[in-house]
Specification:
By secondary structure, the protein is of the alpha+beta class. The protein is 39% helix and 16% strand. It is built from three helices and two strands, in the order H-H-E-E-H. Strand 1 (37-41) and strand 2 form a beta hairpin. It starts with a helix and ends with a helix.
């Protein structure tokens, strides 16, 4: 996550959440994640893009962020 904040400093706010906390575990489940993943949300909280679990491909994340922030 730190590298994304450096690459897109003016475009994103990044945070990590603990998926083992019950309320966050439910959010992960609702997103279709087994236990973790990466989500890009709008400033209003809408899910714009996501990848689940160990399938997160950082190049796809970068491409999505470039597309979403242009």
């Amino acid at each position: 996550m730190g590298e994304l904040k450096q690459e897109f400093p003016e475009a994103i706010v990044a945070s990590n959440v603990d998926a083992t906390i019950p309320e966050n575990a439910q959010i992960c489940k609702d997103l279709g994640f087994s236990n973790h993943g990466l989500v890009v949300r709008s400033s209003k909280g809408e899910t714009l893009w996501k990848q689940a679990d160990h399938s997160v491909d950082m190049e796809q994340v970068r491409t999505a962020l470039r597309d979403l922030t242009d």
